[in-house]
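step: validate -> pass
step: tokenize input -> pass
step: predict -> running
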Amino acid sequence: MANFDVKEELKKLPNKPGVYIMHDENDTIMYVGKAVNLHNRVRSYFRANIGRGPQIDQMVKQIARFEYIVTDSELEALVLENNLIKEHCPRYNTLLKDDKTYPYIKVTVSEDYPRVLFSRLIKKDKSRYFGPFTSAAAVKDTIDLINKIYGLRTCNRVLPRDIGIDRPCLNYHMKQCCGPCTGGVTKEAYRERVDKALDFLNGNYSAIIKELEEKMENAAEELDFEAAAKYRDLLSSVKVVAQKQKMTDASMEDKDIVAIASDDKDAVVQVFFVRDGRMIGREHFYMTHVSENPQAEILLNFVKQFYAGTPFIPRELMLPEEIEDMDIIEQWLSQRKGSRVYITVPERGQKEKLMELAAQNAELVLSKDKERIKREEGRTIGAVKEIESLLGLKGLNRMEAYDISNISGFANVGSMVVYEKGKPKKSDYRKFRIKSVAGPDDYACMHEVLTRRLLHGIEEKHDLQVRDIDARYGSFTKFPDLILMDGGRGQVNICLQVLDELGITIPVCGMVKDDNHRTRGLYYNNVELPIDTRSEGFKLITRIQDEAHRFAIEYHRSLRSKAQVKSSLDDIPGVGPTRRKALMRHFKSIEDIKNAEIEELTKIPEIPEKTAKQIYEFFHSQTSAE
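step: predict -> pass
step: emit ->
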């Protein structure tokens, strides 16, 4: 992210519709937006203020990088934007609290006499869903049109149980329903009507569009402009529903769509993640050493490597072409997931279109982001490889670093920071308030921190196994591949002692600093290993060490701040938590309270005159003593 050059990246923006995603310096998603033209829309954020408003101006100042996903239409961009906002809840997006979503057309095919209904929710109820659509009015008009054309029922009667019980409704008498409630139409005949409606919803709109256009023209020729306007509106509604988009799938299945773009040296694999039928994100992966390997072989290597390490396996994996040993790979994935996994190669329909879109995004990454991705991977995965080589380790993915912070033994705290694949994983950071050590003993503090962290992981893993819950849902269950200590031999030996006490084997490495408090090397297996200070591995170690130190210092500073507020007020007789809060609400600072007269203190409802005098005397007697 440090190498993200906004000016250069703005030049690479395509003149295509899509969704853009703004990240801050911590790589948190701040804003998700859609664009008819990504090139024009994203660039507009970085122009001089043109009346965007203070909130957008504030967001723009925090943008550290942006990314984008190209779509085939503005409609797709709109639906994808909605999915991503619901998934990530960015702080600068307006969020809909009731989680209202786009409308669908629901056909109750499991009923003996199915209905075509409006729905905003997808349920696993054996019905067929079409959508989502962006216009609720157009969906309602289309449902009305379908029911009239095919004579489908709109009532809630349970058929065939209620056949002949009540009189048919007004729609039957107006010849807008074939009247299955009368018993005058068989299940088979009614099902033929439903099949035609499904055919329409599946995309065969041409016949209805042609019919409506002819009726509109005929009405206009006969000067029946009211009827012509009605047909025009119905035609418009049908065309809105006819727009296909690929960002939400009514099947509600979890699937990964994997596409690839390659040249003679490199390849980019793009993965679209669809969860519960909604596309919620994507990731691209740079494949090196591909030389002239066919794409099927590159895909095979990617699938084996990526899905061997990822904790979540989707129900369906969609590939652009068949790979070798596809049946065996499918069995392997099914074993890892614990249920059946399908590998498919879509050839037509919505899935094939989504595959094309993923491939299009992979091509963009390959052609425009090649150098940036190489630099980023050098700083992260490449740096981890260097550390692996230096220490003689393999499979180094998760690293945890620890640090202790205190001032003369006051408020001892410990920090744990986590890096995975060379990137900080802030959701796994932890801070510890030392309980068993009173004075400035860093070794004893570190012993407590490591013991608590590792014991917590052991206990949490056992608890999850007893409750039959996947261990990946526990925050401490995943142990590191390498522990990094902020220091040399002493800190490393403390960590090794804790690991030995708990019967755990994890490599431990010390980050040794020179006399100027700068990282100079690594202490591993009783040997200090020099490291090239210009290498990416050294830079990563430095970043990890600085991050552990920063995280500990910030926690310690926050505790000191709280302690100062407490010591200034809670030592006053008659001032407890409630009155302390009331004082701080009214005066904003300790200094203001100190300078306040008794009359001003008594204006606060929670402070009686006796307590006001005690507060006044407390601060003024201190001043006299000083």
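step: describe -> Residues 96-100, 470-474 have pLDDT under 50 and may be disordered.
step: cleanup -> pass
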